[in-house]
Amino acid sequence: MASVLRHSAKFTSGISSSLAACARNGTACAFPCHAFRHRNSSTSSKIRVDLDSSTGVAVMTLQGPPVNSMCMDFLTDFAISMEKLELDKNCRGLILTSAVPKVFSAGLDIMEMYGKGPEHATVFWRAVQEMWFKLYSSNMVTIAAVNGSSPAGGCLLALSSDYRIMADNPRYVIGLNEAQVGIVAPFWLKDNMVQTLGHRQTEKSLQLAQLYSAPDALKIGLVDKLVPEEKVLSTATETMAKWFSIPDHSRQITKSMMRKQTIDKFLSNRETDINNFANFVTKDSIQKSLGTYLAKLKKKKA
Ligand SMILES: CCCCC/C=C\C/C=C\CCC/C=C/C(=O)SCCNC(=O)CCNC(=O)[C@H](O)C(C)(C)COP(=O)(O)OP(=O)(O)OC[C@H]1O[C@@H](n2cnc3c(N)ncnc32)[C@H](O)[C@@H]1OP(=O)(O)O
């Protein structure tokens, strides 16, 4: 709870924060103040949200270096930001992107799963579920502007969005590589992938823990569009306009109809899934796999 309060994202007036920035720098404000009239920003330790009320588009920027890994603070910030946006009548669409060079998100923070007991695993997994659920069931139009590598939990963010735009860079990878880490994608994430790629492609992707380069991800339909890196955000904004041309109520009902089965299955198996995760991740053999994987990640640098 303390952590929730500590990291509670505070929406502040864009005008006052810009003025404050100008005042801090001791410079004259370079932008006319009316440019900020409709902007609201919130910043927490891991996530920044900028909502432009005049367009109805919020940009959520992941800003947790070195790799935007999803630790408890990240998950808490994410859930709070989503709740605020969902309740904000001025917000119709959300773009997810990263401020960390070359990485969209490295997925779950492995340190949250390594060397921890079942109580921690329970709290952590509930927060992971909540992240997926809030995004997958969002009323907003959600677009992932994937401007870097996006393995595992990073791919989860993209998969649960309505549309995925990725930087056209063959060095950036995306996919669900859980099996490589020695863990298993949960059933709701597997279902989410099946809806996107189909059963056969998902089976191959998950069993082989495949990470696809951006061009390969486009070929199999894991992302919808590739654009040069500097155009990822502007393309997401243009794409949003297309989705906004459909009346919200009919688009939202359609989305919820398409996603209902997966959501219902998730909700009725949620507690079992948490228990399975806590039992699974605390097993000696799984801890050993996680330890080996972590050591490999660290060794990469040496
Ligand atoms: C039968 C019952 C079944 C029950 C099943 C129930 C539940 C299912 C269980 C689990 C499901 C989990 C679902 C999701 C899982 C995940 O998300 S696991 C995370 C997987 N992620 C990865 O494998 C990515 C690993 N990272 C990378 O590949 C690279 O870091 C990169 C993202 C491509 C970026 O590369 P680069 O820019 O070169 O950065 P470095 O590799 O040098 O990394 C910088 C530092 O960050 C550390 N790090 C990287 N990723 C993570 C991470 N995910 N968690 C924690 N830390 C990470 C890395 O070690 C470096 O640290 P140092 O600077 O060396 O200290």
Please, could you describe this protein's structure?
There is one protein chain. With 302 residues, this protein is an alpha/beta fold. The protein has one domain (2-23, 36-230, 246-299): 2-enoyl-CoA Hydratase, Chain A, domain 1, CATH 3.90.226. 51% of the residues lie in helices and 15% in strands. The strands form 2 sheets. An 8-stranded mixed sheet has the order 1-2-3-4-5-6-8-11, sandwiched between helices. Bound molecules: ligand L6WJOLX4. Ligand L6WJOLX4 binds at residues 66-67, 69, 102-103, 106-111, 149, 151-153, 177-178, 181, 183-186, 276-277, 280, 297-298, 300-301. One of its GO terms (cellular component) is mitochondrial matrix.
SSE topology:
Blueprint: H1 2-6, E1 12-13, H2 14-25, E2 39-43, E3 47-52, E4 57-62, H3 72-87, E5 93-98, H4 118-136, E6 141-146, E7 150-151, H5 153-159, E8 163-167, E9 173-175, H6 178-181, H7 187-197, H8 199-207, E10 212-213, H9 214-220, E11 225-227, H10 232-244, H11 248-281, H12 284-299
Parallel strand pairs: 4-5, 5-6, 6-8, 7-9, 8-11
Antiparallel strand pairs: 1-2, 2-3, 3-4, 9-10
Helix pairs in contact: 3-4, 4-11, 7-8, 7-11
Bound molecules: ligand L6WJOLX4.
Ligand L6WJOLX4 binds next to helix 6, helix 11 and helix 12.
Spatial strand sequence of the major β-sheet: 1-2-3-4-5-6-8-11
Give the overall average pLDDT: 89
CATH homologous superfamily placement: 2-enoyl-CoA Hydratase, Chain A, domain 1
Highest-level CATH class? Alpha Beta
The CATH topology annotation reads as 2-enoyl-CoA Hydratase, Chain A, domain 1
Ligands (ions, cofactors included): ligand L6WJOLX4
Which segments are poorly predicted (pLDDT under 50) over 5 or more consecutive residues? 1-37
Q: Approximately how much helix is present in the residues?
A: 40-55%
Number of domains: 1
Task: Work out the number of β strands.
Answer: 11
Helical segment count? 12
Radius of gyration from the alpha-carbon trace, in angstroms: 19 Å
CATH architecture title: Alpha-Beta Complex
Q: How is the biggest beta sheet arranged?
A: 8 strands, mixed
Q: Separation of termini?
A: 38 Å
- Determine the structural class based on helices, strands and strand pairing: alpha/beta
Element pattern in H and E: HEHEEEHEHEEHEEHHHEHEHHH
Shape: globular
Strand content: 15-25%
